[in-house]
Amino acid sequence: MTPHEKRIKEIAGKLKKLLSTKEKLSYLNEVRSEIKQESFIKQGGLGGTFKNAFDPVLMYVNSEIQNLPSEKQDKPTLSNNKIKWNGTPSQFGYLFLELVKHGFIEPPPHGSEWSYSGLAKQCYQYFHIESKPGKLTTLENLIKELQPDNIKTGNRKNTLCDSIRAKFTIPDLPDLA
Fold this sequence. Notes:
Blueprint: H1 3-18, H2 21-45, H3 55-67, H4 71-74, E1 83-85, H5 89-101, E2 109-110, E3 113-114, H6 116-126, E4 127-132, E5 135-136, H7 139-145, H8 162-165
Parallel strand pairs: 1-4
Antiparallel strand pairs: 2-3, 4-5
Helix pairs in contact: 2-3, 5-7, 6-7
């Protein structure tokens, strides 16, 4: 790989992290169009000297477009057969934290510990949770709401107030046996 190709790949990687799927697709299509136009100008203007100069870049852009996740994966909707949650994201997060705390569910493992971010990602995949009517909550918000309280520091990630928390009562799983 040439230094130029490495630099292009590095820039594309940074863009991939910054842009949403829709923005990436739009941007990559724009880049592809500019490359084709630039390549055409160079071919005609200089007798084909640069005919293949943009081919590696164009191939890379095309492969990036093909590798983008579909919008259906990126933006969950009820049409994806998701379970509709009628409460708030903070209620959802607190309820699931209580289910974990009392032994009803286990988050996916991450090394030797539970991954609450992994649990949030799975929930985001299977539940339709709105932060406001008609507006889906973000994965980042769901991850925050599904983080357990830090007892040592007293730091709370879940934003559900104490008066609402008190209304949730879930027994320990062994108590129901």
